[in-house]
Specification:
Oligomer: heterodimer
CATH superfamily of chain A: STAS domain
Radius of gyration of chain A: 14 Å
CATH architecture of chain A: 2-Layer Sandwich
Strand content of chain B: 15-25%
Shape of chain B: globular
Structural class of chain B: alpha+beta
Strand order of the largest sheet of chain A: 1-2-3-4-5
Number of strands of chain A: 5
Largest sheet of chain A: 5 strands, mixed
Shape of chain A: globular
Number of helices of chain B: 3
Order of helices and strands of chain B: EHHEEHEE
Number of domains of chain B: 1
Number of strands of chain B: 5
Distance between the termini of chain A: 50 Å
Helix content of chain A: 40-55%
Helix content of chain B: 25-40%
CATH topology of chain A: Transcription Regulator spoIIAA
Number of helices of chain A: 4
Strand order of the largest sheet of chain B: 1-2-3-5-4
Strand content of chain A: 25-35%
Largest sheet of chain B: 5 strands, antiparallel
CATH topology of chain B: Heat Shock Protein 90
Chain lengths: 125, 138
């Protein structure tokens, strides 16, 4: 089964990629291509919504690590939303994400992004 | 034991073999999570054989035997590539922050963590990897 990648823009400098299906050797290449596009834009927060992701292999983990590495120099963040149990398990084994970047609900994520935006406004000259 | 799943070229035919594995596991009534994990494990093993056990230009052929007991699923991978013990490979340093970690080496870490028993043997010129996964999550 293939992977569907649905990009979605909500807040400014934030992009969400909603992944549905399976992330394996083949489909990770599709994700990498999408990432190349997304990472080429001015972006501070990249969200992977994994609510519809059945599983990921190490190929998918590599794509996620790649995204995390790419966002670092621009002081951006990669956040993960709605990890399903098989995906969560693989993330746990590989320690693929900082716990602080994993959110269980859209509400949790929205609260976090709101706080981030408030902080950025306060710090702005 | 059912007839083996023959993968003539793990670089190309892996997905079809994984589909057959998945169908057999599902027919056996394994829990969905176990089926998914076995598929992940098998993909990692096939990818690994394709990458390391064969000279470039030689099709990495693998035979996969699947059997079931009352309590567990057993996978046996056999290839005639050069001797390579996937269980002897060191894991990457998982304590490094994801942003600082080298990319790669995670596949075999997943294999080791997702099965309950793993054994590698070199038998008559073949790499044989035997994995056991219990039906019920522990």
């Amino acid at each position: 089964m293939a992977l569907s990648i649905q990009p979605d823009e909500g807040r400014s400098f934030t992009k969400t990629l909603r992944l549905t299906g399976r992330l394996d050797n083949e489909t990770a290449a599709d994700l990498d291509r999408e990432l190349d596009k997304v990472l080429g834009s001015a972006l501070k927060v990249l969200v992977f919504d994994l609510g519809g992701l059945e599983y990921t292999t190490s190929a998918g983990l590599r794509s996620f690590l790649r995204a995390q590495k790419a966002m670092r120099p621009r002081e951006g963040k990669v956040l993960f939303l709605n990890l399903q149990p098989p995906v969560q398990k693989v993330f746990d084994i590989a320690r693929a994400a900082d716990l602080a970047t994993v959110f269980r609900s859209v509400k949790e994520l929205d609260d976090y992004l709101d706080a981030m935006q408030r902080k950025a406004r306060e710090e702005a000259p | 034991m059912d007839e083996p799943i023959v993968v003539r070229d793990a670089r190309r035919d892996g997905a079809a073999a994984l589909d057959r594995l998945e169908a057999r596991c599902r027919a056996e009534g394994l829990a969905e999570a176990v089926v998914m994990e076995l598929r992940v494990v098998a993909e990692e093993v096939l990818t690994n054989v394709a990458k390391y056990a064969f000279e470039p230009g030689v099709a990495p052929a693998v035979e996969l035997r699947v059997s079931f007991t009352q309590n567990a699923a057993r996978l046996e991978f056999r290839d005639e590539g050069r001797a390579f013990d996937p269980l002897g490979e060191p894991s990457p340093d998982l304590h490094l922050h994801p942003e600082e970690r080298p990319i790669g080496g995670l596949g075999l870490t997943l294999v080791r963590a997702l099965v309950d028993e793993a054994r590698y043997e070199r038998e008559q010129g073949a790499n044989v990897l035997r994995l056991v996964k219990r039906r019920a999550a522990q």
